[in-house]
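fyi for ur records
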Amino acid sequence: MISSLSGESEQKIRKLFEKITESAPAILFIDEIDSILGKRENAGKEMERRIVAQFLSSMDDIAYDNLKGPVFIIGATNKPEYLDSALRRSGRFDKEINIGFPNEKSREDMLIAMTKTKKIDNDISFQELAKLTPGYLAADLEALIREAGLCAVRRIGKLIESSYNEVSPLTEDLNKTNHSEEKVTETKDDGIIYTVNMKDFLEVQ
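which gave:
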């Protein structure tokens, strides 16, 4: 939406809203909306003021009665006080939803949902992980799961490396590991499937 050429940003905004009206029903979602639609009195450049003014004009020009379906315009920000006050008037962003920190039960549900497609051990206690992650948002939990996966990769890598240095065959060593609840099987990517266990999560913590 932002361009260095004068007038081009406003043109992009107009085309965006034209596409919305043509594509109805439609949803326009703008993340970190405060970065482009901040308070005009605090704007350092005239271009920033023009962008806000054009966005407001485009929102007002939507003829909802002539649309083929509903249109939702959603903006996300963690700095609502930075938004231009005109955006929060009736008919524009007139409904605000405050999404706070997820509680323990919500974090547990999120962890379960986020790991449904992951290779995880049965020993993982999502309830315990939820207790250990107060203040975590969805992105933080996603990062936790990713880092736990990396811990599992490193753990399996060390296992394979050590097995090559031992006299016993690799398969025998891996089978012993399977008995200790560390599972190794084949995968499409690098020949190894790793399963993430509770220790991997606790190592990240």
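Residues 8-88 form a domain with the Rossmann fold fold (CATH 3.40.50.300). thats all i got for now
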